[in-house]
Design a protein that fits this description.
The protein has about 475 residues and is of the alpha/beta class. Helices cover about 55% and strands about 5% of the residues.
Amino acid sequence: MRFDSITSVKIVDIELDEKNYRFGMATSQQDCINKIYNHSPENFKNIMEDIAENDLGEHLLVYKNEKKLTILDGNRRASILKILNNPELAPNESVKNLAKQLRQNAKCDLNFVGAFVSEDLEAISKTVYERHAATGGVGRIKWSAYANARFRYDIQQHGDSNWIAIALLLHFQNTNNKYNDFISDSHFSFETFTRVIRSAYQLGYIDHSIFDVSTSTLLPNTPAYKLALSFVETLLELLKNREISLSREGNYASAKNIELFLKQYFSIVTTIKPPTLKNTRKKKEPLPIISDQPPQISPPNNSIPAESLKKSVDELQGELLLANNQLQTVKLNKPKFDKKILKNDSLTLAINSLEIPKFNVLYKSLLTIDPTEHPLLTIVGIWSLLDSLARLDSSYSKDFAGYFKGKLQNYSFDNAEDSKSDKEILDWLSKEGNFTKHSNNYATFNGLEIAQKFNRIQSIIGFVVSEHILKALKQKSGQ
């Protein structure tokens, strides 16, 4: 365990991270609270009620730098604690009144909070990385592609050639905050931004001399650097106006369209071919290559019989072949698969906000059941949960996959490929669950696949419930 003990700290003494990866850069502590709230107002209120009723849950991660205590993980929960501690910090009157109401019977401590406090920034960053930016299924709360790339760049874990895009964007944000709200908005596509920057670098619209590829850094204070930042500003304005995007309905950001887009809006600044961008992670040392040829043996000593020498050479050859096999037989890492359905915070809060016991019981059953032992019950249970949730919205017809896919226009996918694959998973769950329910000759027996796929789209379901289904129910009831 990286952190040995939990420290009780005053809520007023801890500071929110004004450079928060998930919610965007802020200019003050109050601006932090406002940005966090505006990211998802409904979820913010739901979490506020949950904390007041059930306490904080997972402990905050706090970095201690001299006397300053900065929250590096748990900023949304901490901002809620600060509002419960002092309702005057609320972003609006509605939240302020809710905080005053919750304070009366709050079960959480309104003055102190438990946190892992450390001066070891590397240890804290590693934990944050595992929770949010890791690619092996460790992260529980999905970050946007921009937040993920920014964090990886900061801790030098980006490991790909696209670092020039996030480096340029961060340098621009440090000199110009005009587009910070747009960059942190769900409509900003970092994938599109990266594609354009990569093409601009290759085609000479950005001077490659500003990049130090050996250290993955930018070289500021040069005319080429200023031109590059100007390029970024124009590009952000064009992206804001959706002049190019990942939408198939508009000017799709294919390689050909990006080239035409660059010709239309920008000028080439250099005709010198740029160096190839390489991955920035350290490469593993290659295994030593051992020749299949027998070793060179020095001329025999007259004192050693020839028969003994022949035997020695045979033994050496055998040992060499054995060593060769041992060194070159590299074991393939066994992939890690989810062996059960994992509790997802976003979906849990969304289901709680519905206040319909059926969904709490059904979701809890899915969290309890062993998919490998009961794959049929698992897939049918998932199908029932998704179908029942969709039916809460009067706009639902008969296909829950189509319903959920139609509500994801503002969902922040990391890239177009994730959007495509996650929507495919919804189709798969609909088809497999339906066939398993109704067909005598069809069943889904791979419980690991069922769990893996459902875990991947739980945040999507939570988003649709919070942003669409809950609102539809409130409109129906006239609230």
